[in-house]
Design goal:
CATH class: Mainly Alpha
Number of strands: 2
Shape: globular
Number of helices: 17
Radius of gyration: 19 Å
Oligomer: single chain
Family: Belongs to the FPP/GGPP synthase family.
CATH superfamily: Farnesyl Diphosphate Synthase
Protein name: Polyprenyl synthetase
Helix content: 55-70%
EC number: 2.5.1.-
Largest sheet: 2 strands, antiparallel
CATH topology: Farnesyl Diphosphate Synthase
CATH architecture: Orthogonal Bundle
Strand content: under 5%
Structural class: mainly alpha
Enzyme class: transferase
Strand order of the largest sheet: 1-2
GO molecular function: metal ion binding; prenyltransferase activity
Order of helices and strands: HHHHEEHHHHHHHHHHHHH
Number of domains: 1
Length: about 325
Amino acid sequence: MNPTLSELGPAFAALTARSETALERALPPAHHGPGRLQQAMRYAALGNGKRLRPLLTYATGMLLQAPLSRLDAPAVAAELIHAYSLIHDDLPAMDDDDLRRGRPTCHVAFGEATAILAGDALQALAFDHLAHDTALDVDATTRLCMLRTLATACGAEGMAGGQALDLAATGGDLDLPALEHLHALKTGALIRACVRMGALAAAADTTTLAALDDYAAAFGLAFQIRDDLLDVEGATATLGKTAGKDSRQGKPTFPTLLGMDGAQRRLHEVTALALQAWRLSAPRPICCAIWRITPRRARAETRMAATTAGSGHAAIAQLMNRIVSG
């Protein structure tokens, strides 16, 4: 189960609430049009998620001085894409999961046909919202860059390609570069898109965009390694999804390839890469906050950075600490 908002700190609570409100407004009413389809869309998108992806968009944009109103549309679009991908990933033909965010998956609750349509509709809505939201006061070129960024993250060079590699690898063996490439597409592509869209909303220059992409790539990999570790160590009730399912299905994971200790070491390594990339482009507090992915190792440094930074940066550091710590 996810922690309650009262436990997360003011920055996390405020931005999570903002993302929930923006997401609610973007979705069609439950009984508008073909009601069962709309209900399935809302069920999948408004479930008990951590909103990591919109929060990454908000955090990046805010630290680069973008107004919040300019970040709502890309944040919502990213979460809609994430919701669509979870619906499709959970289908019997894919990962065949029946539990997501602590409740039945969309196809279990609404049937496979409606779930497929809901995923398709959420994907379409993401692009429609990003293309037409009037609060996104950027020029046409920047909006087009955001749309292309999100499209690339969804397609054969992103999530769809990663899922194809994941299905092909089930029951087989992958070396570390192949496994990391798989997850750079399946998990990391959308995380990179979230960070990039936040930076685009702030009119970041090409040097900053490149450094942020390196940061986001390492962040996405660290997030996936940590997720793999939790799949081994966690309980279904805590995770909100079926624990241990990847290993039972013969899917390649970092713990099965490297062992638990090796996966922890790799987690530390990619976290250091994220830190190095962020130092090139962003204030120190959020750079230090990424260390909270790893257990205990650098929490003192993170707390010190948050204390010595301005209040806005300290709040975002706290926010990022809580996001990546689950």
